Structure formats: structure tokens, C-alpha cells
Fold these 2 entries.
Entry 1:
Amino acid sequence: MHHLRSEIRAAGAAVGPEANKGIGFPRLYDLLVLMLTRGRDRAYREALLDLAGLAPGFQLLDVGCGTGTQAISAWRRVQPGGSVVGVDVSEKMLAAARRKANRAGLEIPFHHADAASLPFENGRFDVVTFTTVLHMVPEARRGFCLREAARVLPPGGRLLLIDYAGPVSERGHMSAKHGLHGQFDLHRLREPLAGAGFERIEDGPLNWLSLHYLRAVRS
Ligand SMILES: C[S@@+](CC[C@H](N)C(=O)[O-])C[C@H]1O[C@@H](n2cnc3c(N)ncnc32)[C@H](O)[C@@H]1O
């Protein structure tokens, strides 16, 4: 573990500033998602959760949970008996997530943590999701995030990555082309995923925002 943390620090140093501080504008973020999904944020979330294959009793970790919308939708799917935990590097996003969960009367723990160093024991979750998070993580740190996801899953546990993929010229939705979104290609994570201990890797497009998914099972 100590060795892994030193490696993470080294990777951070190699890419300039340490891990990014995440997104600091939760209200605007929710508004943007609502606008980009044309008011159908709920349907967007349900489509993503269908891919996660959640079932009652499952333990889910949502990494880069943002304002918690997806974690809250997911919570309903894992009842009875399941639980959802969210982590994010942004205290502002986490505060919004906690407020939302409180309003919904749900006790969902939202922790401040970096995807490259998760504060959970090995094999703690059945499913780990990253929804539009990895494009924000510096390239040199992405492998650590995948290895951490593998560590907190047991053999047979599932990982779902949702992000931007493919040639920018083929991305129809404007949000998939700009800045970090445009520079990121989810397909390039196939090899690192296998290296991190995942198998049965499959991918495909989503009908939302020109996003794609990459799904894999912990070997
Ligand atoms: C585009 S938002 C997506 C939020 C949420 N998953 C959703 O679908 O609405 C990306 C989130 O990832 C968080 N983030 C970025 N880098 C992270 C890291 N290294 N570890 C954990 N969270 C991170 C940001 O703070 C932000 O809340």
C-alpha cells in the first residue's frame, strides 16, 4: 500500500499539479446536465444505471459522484438490502450531494476521496461506476484509478466507465468535442483495464451526449 501511494505521488508530480480539485460549481453543473439532456436528466441516469446491471442487495461505489444525482437513482435500484457510497475530490460537489440525499431522506455516505486512492477495504463493493470522470483525471493517474477500482471489487465484481470516445469528428453532440472531453478517448483504456485486472471488456455507444461505455469484470 505504501509503495502504491508513493507511485501515485510520483505520477502526480510527473503531470504537473497533483490530482485535479474537481468541479467547483455544483448548481451550474446540475443546470448544465439538465440543459444538455434537454430536461431528461432522469432518463439519462436510468439509461446509465441499466448498463451497470444493478440488482437488489448490491453494494455500489460511484466514483466522481458529483452532486449525487446518479448515486441517489442507483440507491433505489439496490433496495432492499443494498447500499451506495459516493466519492469525489470536490467538497462543493459533495456538499450538494449530501443536501440532495438529505432532501430525499436517504442515508448515502459521500466521502472526500481521490479515485486513485480509495479509502475502502479490498473487495468491498459489487459494482464501481465512473460517469464522465476519467476525462478529468490526468492521463498518468488513470491507471492508478483503474487499479484502485479493481482492488475494491471482488473477483466477478463489475466496473462501468461512461465517457467520451472515438474520433472527435464523429462525435455529434457539441459537449463531446470541447476541451478535456474532446481530448479524451475511452477506448484507449481497454489495455490499461486489462492490465489493472479486468476481463470480459466490452464497449458501446450510448444514445446520450455522444457518450460511450466501457464495461468489465474483475478477474
Ligand atoms: C463531469 S463530473 C460528473 C459527476 C457525476 N459522475 C455525474 O455523472 O453527474 C466529474 C466529477 O468527477 C470529480 N472528479 C474529478 N477528478 C476526480 C478524482 N481524481 N477523483 C474523484 N473525483 C474526481 C469532479 O469533482 C466532478 O464532480
Entry 2:
Amino acid sequence: MTTPWGEFELSRFPEDPRDRLRAWDASDAYLLRHLAEEGVPITGTVVVVGDRWGALVTALARHRPTQITDSFLSQEATRANLARAGVEPGAVGLLTTQDPPPERVDVLLVRVPKSLALLEDQLLRLAPAVHAGTVVVGTGMVKEIHTSTLQLFERILGPTRTSLARQKARLIFCTPDPALERPANRWPYSYALPEGVGAVSGRTVVNHAGVFCADRLDIGTRFFLEHLPAGTRGARVVDLGCGNGVVGTAVAVADPQAEVLFVDESFQAVASAEATYKANGVPGHAEFRVGDGLAGVAPGSVDLVLNNPPFHSHQATTDATAWRMFAGAKRALRPGGELWVIGNRHLGYHVTLKRLFGNSRLVASDPKFVVLKAVKRG
Ligand SMILES: C[S@@+](CC[C@H](N)C(=O)[O-])C[C@H]1O[C@@H](n2cnc3c(N)ncnc32)[C@H](O)[C@@H]1O
């Protein structure tokens, strides 16, 4: 990436040589060019929210920025990109969306996240640190910036306008108004599950902003809850890509002897899973871990993996993540251990499971979803 601060070699995480997707886009480039061309003073405490793969903080490293991210994968990519650029450790602060934000912010750069709820939560958390002199600039691709996005800046920070589009990217300029009466932060948000969803019927789910299906039960997850394996009897279980933790909590409620590991790459998700588990007063053993799939879980150490894989509109991303999750499950399972997967019928996960495990059985189906099970053979 060529920027007014120099040229940087950037990659995503995990690195995949077949992956031709760049680790920055036109919205990163537009923001950096704007800061340089307009001579925007980048002094004091510089905070960068939503930097996808660390392109912004790597380019701006000499201004000692602090990055705030919800994503473990983004944070790992940022660490690697900073190291490759020769940035001294500690020059860039790496915070998660769950950490307390800095007390004063002089420059706030926002790469608009995919989740409007996460943007709302982050702006509300940062607003007390923003003052009348804070420079606030947002950036995103045109298709990611809606009227509702601009309204959030306007309602939480102050008067907001946008730039012209350049290479399908747009900037957001906001003039903070400290006298503004901000709305209350509605996150984290809890709701009660409906009846008829197995062990967790009528129980509470806690959702931090930005987690998958944060304000109602997803219909796929619902179908999974209705068909989870019975009789786990003290098994070591992983809720892989746990989101708000409803699946792993269902296992723990049904079998208090089970040892459940909740894993997600989203800091918001893992915090939600822990809150959901605690809200249900389950007496068993549980561990909550932010990480990339099952990396770091000892091979052959798990009896059961439950997975509702992520799917994005970008097909390449979809397949790659599901494949990595299934392959990780195969490694982590003991011989005879099982991976249970819920997916949209059209995603064809049975083909992937057959290729990886040599078997795939249909546990349940409806016109939209399938629950599949693959067994690790000796
Ligand atoms: C479709 S959601 C399922 C959430 C929850 N299990 C449910 O059924 O409601 C997929 C989850 O996978 C997580 N995820 C995506 N990539 C991941 C990765 N590389 N490692 C761990 N979790 C990941 C997402 O953050 C998201 O919470």
C-alpha cells in the first residue's frame, strides 16, 4: 500500500498464499490521502476504530495511534503488519472493543464496521473522551455508508457531512458537539429465548453489540438447538464460533458435568458467551477463549464440536472459514469424537465433511437447514 507515510507490505490473517484479497481498500487509502493533503493535525491521542487488517495504524504508526478492534484476526494481522514495517513494539496501542477506551481522544478515525450496532456502541463508549477540538473522520466504501450510519455520528458526536465518492469510497466528517444529549447505550442487550428450543427454552441470552443475531434467535441456531446431541455425559465439548454462546450454554444446562469451551474470533462474542453462561447460573466447567477456530486446542483432546459456521456474501471467505473450522475440529477431536454442523442446505457442507472426515450423516433437515454429523475415525 502506497501512502503519504511510505510504502507498506500488508497481509491479512491467517495468511493464505492462495488468498488474493488485499489487506486494505480504497477507503483506507482515501482517508490517509485526506489526512496528508489537508494537513490534518495528527497530534495527541490518536484512536483508530475498525481498522480491518491494520493498514491505518501501520501507516500512521509514527503518530503512536491506538487501535480498537472487535476481531482477533484483525489484531493478529495488525501485529504482523506492524512487525513487517519495523514498527517498535508498543508504538501502537492494541485495544479490544471490550477494553476501557482512552480517557481523552484528540483524533478519532473510524473505518465504518459492517455492524451498525457495533458502530453505535463504540461511538457511545468513546463519546465521553471526545472534546470540541477532536478531529473525527470516518471512512468506508460507498455501499457501507448509509443514512443510518451518518445519523449515528450526528446523534452521538455532532454535526456530520460526507465527502464526494472517490474510487467507490467516501469520508465522513463530524464536528463534535460536547453539549449534545447522547442516547443511552442499549448494549449489552438481553432477551429471553422462546419455548421449544430444548434445554435453554425460556432462558436468557446476553448480546454485546455486533454479535451474530444480537436481538433475536437466528432461525438456523434455533433449528440446531432443537437437534443437539443428547447424552453428552461429562464430555469435553467445544462451541466453535460461539457468538452469544447459546449453543454451548444449552449443552451445559442439559449436562452440568460437560466441560464446555466457548471459542470465537470476536471479543464481543466471547464476552457475550460468558455473560450468557453466567446469566443461566450453570454449575459446570466452562472456558471462554478468543482465538482463530480451534488453533491452540490440543489434538485429540475433544469429544464433541458444535459449529454454526460463519457465512458472508463473499463466497470465497465463506468456504475458507468453514473449511478451516472443520479441519481444526478433525484435528482437535479424539478418535470416535463428533463434529455437528448446522448450515443452509445450499452450502453443501456434507461434501466438505465427506472429503475431510470420510463420512457425513444427516441428523435433521427442514426445507432451509440441515444438521450434519461427521465422526473422526481412528
Ligand atoms: C453464524 S455465527 C454462529 C454464532 C452462534 N454459534 C449461533 O449459532 O448463534 C458464526 C460465528 O463464527 C465466528 N467466527 C468467524 N470466524 C471465526 C474464526 N476464524 N474463529 C472463531 N470464530 C469465528 C463469528 O464471529 C460468529 O460469531
